[in-house]
Amino acid sequence: MSESRSGYLYGFIAYLSWGFFPLYWPLLDPARSDEVLAHRFVWSLAVCVALVTFARLWPKFWQIMRSPRRLALMTAATFVIAINWGVFIWGVTNGYVIEASLGYFINPLITVAFGVVFLGERLRPLQWAALGVAGIAVAALTIGLGRPPWLALTLACSFATYGLIKKKANLGAIESLSAETLIAFPVALAYLFLLGSQDGLAFGHAGSINSILLIGTGIVTAFPLLMFGAAATRISLTSIGLLQYVAPSVQ
User: Fold this and answer.
1) Distance from first CA to last CA of the chain, Å, rounded?
2) HSE-up of residue 138 (Cα within 13 Å, Cβ side)
3) Cα of 119 vs its chain's centroid, Å
4) Which of 58, 106, 132, 188 has the most crowded CB, counting CB atoms within 10 A?
């Protein structure tokens, strides 16, 4: 399979997985959105460590951690994906699934714009037509919402920025995600300990099923991000943007 075709396949798998995400997060109740966010980073790192070890990628991983430019890019990626995750989890656990899905209808438009402006990518006539139709649909959905879609815009801008950073970094999917989760791990773990000291931690106090599901956020989080990272290095940001309509359509 060619690099381009495999990139489209990885991207499709990533967005299909994200499309089903809203079904998972409500199962984590009574864990709050902030605790779930912290668990995602902690357990994603555990998954990444296992993958790096299995694939023997430790030398490449440490190259990222020793490079100031690459480390800066991964730190920026960690920051924007944390915003995206936090806002998304809060939205779907507080009854804003429609607005969250609207964010991912808006996101491809911003992603494509980033590809054109920052990477010099060019669109074919049919792609312009598709984006025109998408723009009309987004406008109609926004009017139907009846208020400024702040949650949707935050999701759209943060994930589009994440995609641009991953494209600029052009690093392996496993080692780059491992760097991102390692950067966030100390803060996430410290926050979980803080919640525990204030009796606000659901993990270990809401039954074994709840704890298993919280641990499962590592796999649920890491798998589509690895697929997305693999796609980002193989196809254009414009193509990634157009593929993104899979996720909100499923949602």
Assistant:
1) 29
2) 24
3) 21
4) 106
CB atoms near residue 26 (< 10 Å): 10
Mean pLDDT of 229-247: 86
154 three-state secondary structure: helix
pLDDT in tens, 30-57: 998 889 999 999 999 999 999 999 999 9
The pair of three-digit structure tokens given for residue 106, joined into one six-digit string: 């808006």
β strands within the chain, DSSP E: none
Round to whole Å and give the CA distance between 227 and 93.
25
**3-class SS at 234?**
coil
Note the pLDDT of residue 13.
Answer: 94
For the whole model, what pTM was predicted? 0.86
The pair phi, psi for residue 95, each rounded to 5°, is 85, 25
